[in-house]
């Protein structure tokens, strides 16, 4: 990577850290940047920079210092002792936001597991700071347990959470099984955090899932029905936002939340078209989809926030794509049309005649296929139908019965 690219990536990452702080209800008072070949072993920053930080903390009455990279337990401890304020890193900040945002039982358990996984190797000497988990950013620890006093207790608690998560995952598997039985076409909305996924999800399904200009606004997968222009209904699932350099503990813990994506028949990949590091965001999402073995699922790329860019000079990097604003009704209609178009390309065309005494078959065909034409013939006492069908769907049995070449 060129020096210039490295610097750009660094400043983008710093900007993201600011957005994370805002999401955690904090206010950034000052930023300190240091260029050095490698982080200081004891303090992460050099000793001269440490003195500069002490002055800023005193003058501006700063209460919390957040490092943009993961700190070792020793570095966090030494910084805390030197600066005399709480010190956390990017991973702890993300964990904190996840802790505040988790709504479902599974989400909460996963966050707690991730917090313990992160804390375990950092326990040594964090005693005082951890046993008094108060209010504020980076303090939403797992309960009041005196973490430093008993590693065994933490390991037992982690095993217990893993057991409970297994049960929840099995329950989710049952829900999925039921959905498969209902044979609904599933569309997953994925994207880098803050790309506008939840706004789009709400407008596509006309629901009111949590929607805010904050990172990680959605943590728990939500599913709603979405009606396409042909009135065919699909199941739309919103997912947690992807992010670069996600704490390892969190990637593991949120695996099952993201596994919803693997069940999808189509992925809507939402990208903030106005983001300065749009390509990085795209790559991050593709990389994670690959890790989830979901990179072979058909995808429609949705470039969002077109109102913030110069459309004439916009160059997409993924196809098929749409350029939209999630707040416009016309854009919502475009996505639904494109979704239907992709489905038709994957599915099989059919046409046939259904006698009116076969009303049951007609009802199934209306529900489970994209019906393009349905005309009643009085003389023949039945319906001419045509449309598109998933060749794997059980409704094929009815279609084969009435199919005409």
Automatic annotation (TrEMBL):
Its main location: cytoplasm. It comes from the Bacteria. The keyword Repeat does not apply. InterPro entries: G_HFLX_dom (IPR030394), GTP-bd (IPR006073), GTP-bd_M (IPR032305), GTPase_HflX (IPR016496), GTPase_HflX_N (IPR025121), GTPase_HflX_N_sf (IPR042108), P-loop_NTPase (IPR027417), Small_GTP-bd (IPR005225). Pfam families: GTP-bdg_M (PF16360), GTP-bdg_N (PF13167), MMR_HSR1 (PF01926). HAMAP family: GTPase_HflX (MF_00900). Monomer. Associates with the 50S ribosomal subunit. GTPase that associates with the 50S ribosomal subunit and may have a role during protein synthesis or ribosome biogenesis. This is GTPase HflX. It comes from Gracilibacillus salinarum. The lineage of its organism: Bacteria, Bacillati, Bacillota, Bacilli, Bacillales.
């Amino acid at each position: 990577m060129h020096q210039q690219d490295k610097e750009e990536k660094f400043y983008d990452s710093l900007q993201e850290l600011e957005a994370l702080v805002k999401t955690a209800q904090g206010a950034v008072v000052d930023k300190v940047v240091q260029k050095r070949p490698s982080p200081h072993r004891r303090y992460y920053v050099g000793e001269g920079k440490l003195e500069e930080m002490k002055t800023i903390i005193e003058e501006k009455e700063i209460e919390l210092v957040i490092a943009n990279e993961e700190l070792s337990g020793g570095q966090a401890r030494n910084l805390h002792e030197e600066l005399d304020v709480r010190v956390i890193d990017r991973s702890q900040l993300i964990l904190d936001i996840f802790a505040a945002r988790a709504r479902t039982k599974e989400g909460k358990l996963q966050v707690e597991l991730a917090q313990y996984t992160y804390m375990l190797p950092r326990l040594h000497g964090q005693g005082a700071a951890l046993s008094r988990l108060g209010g504020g950013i980076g303090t939403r620890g797992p309960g009041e347990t005196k973490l430093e006093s008993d590693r065994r207790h933490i390991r037992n608690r982690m095993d217990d959470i893993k057991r409970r998560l297994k049960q929840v995952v099995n329950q989710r598997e049952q829900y999925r099984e039921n959905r498969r039985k209902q044979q609904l076409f599933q569309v997953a909305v994925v994207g880098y955090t803050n790309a506008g996924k939840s706004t789009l999800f709400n407008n596509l399904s006309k629901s009111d899932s949590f929607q805010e200009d904050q990172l990680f606004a959605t943590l728990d997968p939500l599913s709603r029905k979405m009606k396409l222009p042909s009135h065919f209904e699909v199941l739309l699932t919103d997912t947690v936002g992807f992010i670069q350099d996600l704490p390892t503990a969190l990637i593991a813990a949120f695996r099952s939340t993201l596994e919803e994506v693997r069940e999808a028949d189509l992925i809507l990949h939402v990208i903030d078209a106005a983001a300065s590091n749009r390509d990085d965001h795209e790559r991050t999402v593709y990389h994670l989809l690959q890790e989830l073995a979901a990179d072979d699922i058909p995808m429609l790329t949705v470039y969002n926030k077109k109102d913030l860019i110069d459309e004439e000079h916009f160059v997409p990097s993924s196809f098929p794509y749409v350029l939209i604003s999630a707040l416009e009704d016309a854009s919502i209609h475009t996505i639904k049309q494109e979704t239907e178009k992709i489905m038709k390309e994957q599915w099989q065309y059919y046409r046939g005649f259904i006698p009116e005494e076969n009303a049951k078959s007609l009802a199934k065909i209306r529900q489970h296929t994209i019906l393009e034409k349905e005309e009643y013939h009085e003389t023949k006492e039945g319906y001419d139908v045509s449309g598109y069908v998933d060749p794997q769907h059980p409704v094929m049995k009815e279609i084969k019965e009435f199919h005409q070449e």
